[in-house]
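User: Design a sequence. Structure:
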């Protein structure tokens, strides 16, 4: 069973296309869990209009913000394989098939992506190439390549990574990717599984590239502290 965890907040311009692209790849027994962080536009009406029993729409009452919204979705996930999804991207055919195949041999997988503008015009042919992504904890601790919307993992990662620390200084994707790398393993596969849409309202790891070096170092040290505390507790 597959659980897709999608976090929404005022995603009206893009959410219909994304939800449709996800549902096309899910079997009858799979689920699309959508946690909404209090949208005030037409996001919820669009989601409900699909009238699809695989969709589970859940208000986020856990903790506001990106990490809390994703955690709220994950806490309702029942699947053996967990996928992250952002509200403004589009899944491409074969994404689920490629990831599930890789997850037979790896605990976590990150696939490549096309980077597009707001109208889905490709501006970079490869996220991996543009951000120099590759496996390895140290490499991704310095420059995160664990792109959440291109990530899928087995359930045992969820059991260790939750709850996400309330004062974690980074996004959920590097937290889950780092847990997976240190405890198990992460595969980076060249298949391009999504159109990764970039626009003025994005909130993601790539948006942190302009942070001062001192802040980046502080954030990474905070991540290390949380990682070793969690992994020590789960020996």
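Assistant: Done.
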């Amino acid at each position: 069973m597959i659980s897709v965890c999608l976090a929404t907040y005022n995603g009206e311009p893009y959410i219909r296309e994304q939800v449709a692209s996800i549902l096309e790849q899910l079997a009858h027994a799979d689920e699309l869990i959508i946690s909404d962080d209090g949208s005030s536009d037409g996001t919820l009406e669009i989601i409900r209009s699909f009238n699809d029993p695989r969709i589970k729409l859940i208000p986020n009452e856990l903790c506001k913000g990106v990490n809390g919204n994703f955690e709220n979705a994950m806490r309702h996930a029942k699947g053996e394989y967990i996928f992250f999804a952002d509200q403004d991207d589009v899944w491409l055919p074969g994404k689920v098939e490629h990831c599930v195949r890789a997850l037979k041999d790896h605990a976590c997988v990150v696939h490549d992506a096309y980077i597009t503008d707001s109208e889905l015009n490709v501006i970079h042919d490869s996220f991996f190439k543009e951000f120099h992504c590759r496996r390895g904890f140290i490499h991704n601790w310095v420059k995160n390549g664990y792109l959440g919307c291109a990530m899928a993992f087995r359930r045992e990662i969820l059991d260790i990574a939750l709850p996400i620390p309330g004062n974690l200084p980074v996004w959920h994707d590097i937290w889950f990717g780092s847990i997976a790398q240190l405890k198990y393993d992460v595969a980076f596969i060249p298949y391009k599984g999504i159109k990764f849409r970039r626009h003025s309202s994005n909130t993601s790891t790539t948006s942190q590239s302009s942070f001062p070096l001192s802040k980046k170092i502080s954030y990474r040290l905070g991540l290390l502290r949380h990682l070793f505390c969690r992994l020590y507790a789960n020996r």
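The mean pLDDT is 94. The two ends are 27 Å apart (CA to CA).
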